[in-house]
Amino acid sequence: MQRRCIALAKQGYIGLSVKSTHPESLPWGISPLTGMTWNNLRALDYLCSRPDVNQARLGCTGASGGGQQTHFLMCIDDRLDAAVPAVYSSYMKEIMTGRTWVHCNCNWIPGLLAVTDEPEMAAAFAPRPLLFISNQQDWTARWETEGLPDVRKVYGWHGAEGAVENAQYSEPHGYPKPWRERMYAFFNQHFMGGGLASVVEPDSLPELSPREMAAMLPEVPTCQERVDRLEAEFAARLGKRLAEPRDRADAARLQHNLLEHLRRFLHEPAPTRRASPPATVHEDVSGDCRLRVVHVSTEPEITVPALLITALGGASARSLVILVDGRGKEVVFAEEEKLWRGLLAAGAGILIPDVRYWGELSTHPAWPRAYGTLVGRPPAAVAAHDVLELARSLRTTGEFDRRRIVVMGIGDGAVPALLAGALDEELEGVAGTDVGPTYTEGRTTPVCTGILQVCDLPDLACLLAPRPLFWAGVPDTAAYASADRFAKVVRARGHLITSERENAERPGLLAWYSTLRERR
Length: 520
What we know:
Helices cover 39% and strands 17% of the residues. The protein is an alpha/beta fold.
């Protein structure tokens, strides 16, 4: 990096290298690139404030992760006049596959693939001069034929197809001297009025050691301090998510607006496809219980396995409890027997599913975290989607009263349970136990990247009102004060938020469900 800046300075440029930073706060949707891009924007502000900088000749270059930063800066800031992203450009699939696995959390840009991909972002730079540097020995090997033609097409629409170039090499991943010299020539051509004459970087350039550089720098914030500052900035910009309702009509309006925002955020529009009925793959009788293993298609290529427990000889139309727990259906069946037997005695059928990514559908946590963040469907969102589709599926059977489906969540399972309740107004109520903190209070699982840009668990509780809610095991009930006030305005019944933790017999859950049954 020093060599590049020194070589550029010797050619008459002002070179500024910004230290990369890696803050991350997934609940706020803050990725390392958030901090890097923020700093790069401020770097442009600084350069534009200097009287010795020509604001009509601003360029940016970087390799690998620096190429990524270049990509994002040239996409979102019109002040750049030319750019050279090196050994980064590709369709995102190239860095997400097993063939070229080079993924790190720097690439987990929340929701990126839901709206765009790298070639389209690069094309946003048109018609300004743009040089790509690709390499046969890394994930950019296919850029010449997969990606670059799409960028050229957009440049062609601007009548500037000749303004975009690609220099391809075959060397180990990096930014070696020949590539840097190609970059110097490109900037000289467009900024210094020169042709494509080669520029030779001197073999010997003065460089400072890391220790010498550190001694010159002022004290900088720690990574956590950077995260805290970014979170505060996001919170200040977004403001209060859900206002206090004046009356029931105002509450309904606020709920409608937040629900629409939540649906867009989760990529969870109102369902349009017909629900898939459950397929029974195994059936058994144990004592007074009928046990069925069922499979439900929740979206193309996704099948959720679940255990359906009903009483022998029960009524054909009864209530149903969907019991969501990150431990998986087999563990829940064994360890929560007192709970499901209590529900069974109260006349309910119990569905214990393995929603994504728990139980049979579990996988290495890095995969759903990374891919879910990228496509805008993090683990909590797809788990909630599975719960929604399970409810829709069971409604098709005629075995259960569609108006009497309740979702219960234990531990992390409480989050998708509440999300599902907020999204599906047909669900009768929601209960959660061993809930834990809100995302604002530091919750990290289940991962729900960017949720705090829209709402938090107390806001979801407001969306559920006036339907019943039992919410136990929260560290501080004061965090839910707005939900309590909201429930009071809309005259919600069966609304209870408590810090008390349930014991193994789950008396609070069963008592709440019993009162719910009595109100029917």
